[in-house]
Each structure stands twice: as structure tokens, then as C-alpha cells.
Design brief:
The chain contains 9 helices and 6 strands, in the order H-H-H-H-E-H-E-E-H-E-H-E-H-E-H. It is of the alpha/beta class. The protein folds into 2 domains: about 100 residues, Helix Hairpins (Orthogonal Bundle); about 140 residues, Rossmann fold (3-Layer(aba) Sandwich), CATH 3.40.50. It has a 6-stranded parallel beta sheet. One of its GO terms (cellular component) is plasma membrane. It is found in: Cell membrane. It is a multi-pass membrane protein.
Length: about 260
């Protein structure tokens, strides 16, 4: 039984292990002072209260040991407990900063559900993020991109996953299995042919993780539209065709 508890303890996250250590530490000192000075600390709760307040170096002064042994115990608690609690609080702060840095660097994972995934960091996706910010949307939005070093602080409200969207682990890091919508923008750094091929591979990879999610994909060449639909895209945006129509309207409009 003890071996199983020990194994389970060492499998816990570091902060949780440290919390249990401090808990047992203060309980031990509280129990000890209760035994040493039962008149000053009539209950175990009084002893634990004294241990927490003393270990945290708050020192209300409502419970004060009178015996020499009790004062020696207090001295040991201040030296050991103060350091342990300070280390615990510093560890929490460090872990919080680390998690936030991982989120901005795209190295973390997203655990939410019913979110929107936008793939590709470019002027189109940037404009979309700006519109979402201006609308004060509460919708959780995830960006997947392999080129961005760090998500700009302007977009810190959004979540960033760095990686190749055609690789399964990237989709899992963005929790694509629980997404409600995926928008794939074309990679403008590639030729139109290779950009469409990358988009189709991305559709296949994400559709394998979620067979019900709505996928909207930007396709640059008309002959790849059917391939994108066969891969699993629900909506196709032919951006070149749309731009060509707008230019045609501009040319043919008399006014």
C-alpha cells in the first residue's frame, strides 16, 4: 500500500507534489506543538493554524509558544517553513510565466472545445483576427502556423499552435477533434500549384481527426477545387476567381 502511494506521489505534477509536502510539513509541526504545549494549543487545528501563520512569516501573535522546546520548534519552522512556502509561491509564479510564454510561442496545447481554427499567418488571417478583436468576440480562436516565431502581443487573447498543419500532432495540439470550424488560408509563399496541394493535405489531416467539423479552404487554382472537396472541404473560397471578378467589374463599370 505504501509503495503504491509512493509511486502515485512521484507521478504527480511538481507543484502538486510540493503542495502535499508543505501540507504534511505544516500538519507535522502543528501536531508537534499541540503535544508540546497542549494548554496553549488545545486542539490540533490550533497547532496547524499556528504552523501555517508562522511558516508563512505572517505572525499574527494570537498563539505564542512559552516553553523552550516550543520556541525551538518555532525557530525551526521559521527557517524551514518560510523557505518552503516562499519556494512554492515562486514556483507557481514561474510556472504561470512559463505557460504564458509557451502559449505565445506556440509550444502549448489547447484543451477547449467548439473553437475555430485558422491556419496560416498572412495578411488575410491577420485581417480576420483584427475583425474578431474589433467585434469583441468571445469565440475561442486558434492559429496554426509553422513560420511565426511568436504570436504578437496584440493578439495575445488568441491561442497559437506552432507546427505543420499536415502533421497529426499539430492538429491534436490545437484539439482539432473538438473544433466547430476550420479555416485554411493558402500559403502565398508557395506557387499556386504547391499552395493548393498543401491546402488539400491539410484538409485530409484535419478531416482524419474530426469527420464532422466544417472546413472552409482557400483554393487558388480552379482545377483543384474538386480535389479539395473530395479531401473533405465543406466550403471552397476561390480567392483568385473572386479577385478576377472584382477586377472585371472595375474594368467594365462605366462610372
Amino acid at each position: 500500500m505504501i509503495i503504491k502511494i509512493k509511486q502515485y506521489y512521484f507521478q504527480l505534477p511538481f507543484l502538486l507534489k510540493l503542495f502535499f509536502f508543505i501540507f504534511l510539513f505544516t500538519m507535522s509541526f502543528g501536531w508537534a506543538i499541540h503535544l508540546i504545549e497542549p494548554t496553549i494549543f488545545p486542539t490540533l487545528l490550533d497547532g496547524v493554524w499556528w504552523a501555517i501563520i508562522t511558516g508563512a512569516t505572517v505572525g499574527y501573535g494570537d498563539y505564542v509558544p512559552h516553553s523552550t522546546l516550543g520556541r525551538l520548534l518555532t525557530f525551526a519552522l521559521i527557517l524551514a517553513g518560510g523557505g518552503a512556502i516562499t519556494f512554492y509561491m515562486a514556483s507557481i509564479a514561474s510556472a504561470t510565466v512559463k505557460l504564458e510564454q509557451q502559449r505565445l510561442n506556440g509550444n502549448g496545447t489547447f484543451q477547449g472545445k467548439q473553437h475555430i481554427i485558422i491556419i496560416g499567418w498572412n495578411e488575410r488571417s491577420k485581417a480576420l483576427f483584427n475583425q474578431l478583436k474589433s467585434n469583441s468576440s468571445s469565440q475561442q480562436v486558434i492559429l496554426i502556423d509553422s513560420t511565426l516565431t511568436q504570436l504578437p502581443m496584440k493578439y495575445a487573447d488568441f491561442h497559437y499552435v506552432k507546427g505543420d498543419p499536415t502533421i497529426e500532432r499539430t492538429g491534436r495540439a490545437a484539439n482539432a477533434a473538438c473544433a466547430k470550424k476550420i479555416i485554411i488560408t493558402a500559403d502565398q509563399s508557395l506557387t499556386e500549384r504547391f499552395a493548393d496541394q498543401a491546402t488539400i493535405l491539410t484538409i485530409i489531416a484535419l478531416r482524419a481527426l474530426n469527420n464532422t467539423v466544417s472546413i472552409t479552404a482557400e483554393i487558388l487554382t480552379t482545377h483543384q477545387v474538386e480535389h479539395a472537396k473530395l479531401a473533405g472541404a465543406n466550403q471552397i473560397i476561390e480567392s483568385n476567381y473572386i479577385v478576377a471578378n472584382l477586377l472585371h467589374q472595375e474594368i467594365t463599370t462605366k462610372n
